[in-house]
């Protein structure tokens, strides 16, 4: 067994204002894959989009992992294809999720215009002590807590983020902008999508947070950091689960204006 392993926990809540929950979260621990989606669209379309994207994304990651394992063991189909890199696996899975949601949106007028954000983490089990790969589309975020410091690793694909980075508005103005929900990329809104993918080196006791904007709009980074630094080290799955509930409670305490979904993954020693 590896000297290190990833443990995780996740939770989702509809909040105090919305009638339904259009967020989705899922994990495939054996593949080291984790995903959070925040759907959009009329009626139940957002819920369908987020669930379909998350399921398709993980299904393709499992498939590519199984194919790579079969080829490595000499049980492949002999087509000579090289094993996919983590970046290629992430990109392929996201493009598959995009196609699934886009095609579904064209089947009925009630699904027209539906889409979803997606933020994902892939930590290949064989490489768990070395690297983690992140991918996102939209404004769902990934944060990392390292040595007690919280860092936002993803940049929102949103109009407000573009204005902020161009120096057109201040962070304080961005936080209250009426346009902060306008995203510039989404899964399923177009036939193709360009995910943003990045690689980071894992370090012992790193803690990663995937979250929908229900958390980040209602809870300041400083409060998120305070909740995460209170997690015991080394952490257990129960500790992570308790922290997930604390994050959701904070969002609801601050208004619960949107669905809130959080997923925590931590690197711990056996």
UniProtKB/TrEMBL annotation:
Cleavable signal peptide: none
InterPro entries given in the database record: PP2C, PPM-type-like_dom_sf, PPM-type_phosphatase-like_dom
Gene Ontology molecular functions: protein serine/threonine phosphatase activity
Domain of life of the organism encoding this protein: Bacteria
Pfam assignment, any one: PP2C_2
Domain PPM-type phosphatase as annotated: residue spans: 7-267
CDD domains, A to Z: PP2Cc (cd00143)
Name the record gives this protein: Protein-serine/threonine phosphatase
Protein source organism: Edaphobacter dinghuensis
């Amino acid at each position: 067994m590896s000297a290190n392993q990833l443990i995780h926990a996740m939770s989702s809540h509809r909040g105090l204002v919305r009638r339904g929950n259009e967020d989705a979260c899922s994990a495939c621990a054996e593949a080291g894959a984790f995903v959070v989606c925040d759907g959009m669209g009329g009626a139940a379309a957002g819920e369908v989009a987020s669930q379909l994207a998350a399921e398709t994304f993980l299904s393709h990651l499992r498939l590519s992992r199984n194919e790579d394992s079969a080829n490595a063991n000499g049980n492949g189909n002999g087509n000579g294809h090289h094993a996919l890199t983590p970046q290629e696996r992430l990109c392929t899975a996201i493009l598959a999720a995009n196609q699934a949601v886009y095609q579904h949106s064209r089947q009925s007028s009630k699904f027209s215009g539906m889409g979803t954000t997606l933020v994902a983490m892939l930590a290949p089990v064989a490489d768990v002590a070395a690297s983690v790969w992140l991918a996102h589309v939209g404004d769902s975020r990934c944060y990392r807590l390292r040595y007690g410091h919280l860092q936002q690793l993803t940049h929102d694909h949103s109009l407000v983020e573009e204005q902020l980075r161009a120096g057109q508005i201040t962070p304080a103005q961005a936080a209250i902008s009426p346009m902060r929900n306008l995203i510039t990329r989404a899964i399923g809104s177009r036939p193709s999508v360009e995910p943003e993918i990045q690689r980071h080196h894992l370090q012992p006791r790193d803690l990663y947070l995937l979250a929908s904007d229900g958390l980040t709009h209602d809870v300041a980074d400083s409060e998120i950091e305070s909740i995460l630094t209170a997690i015991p080290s080394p952490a257990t799955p129960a500790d992570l689960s308790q922290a997930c509930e604390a994050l959701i409670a904070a969002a609801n305490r601050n208004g619960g204006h949107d669905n809130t979904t959080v997923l925590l993954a931590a690197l711990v020693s056996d």
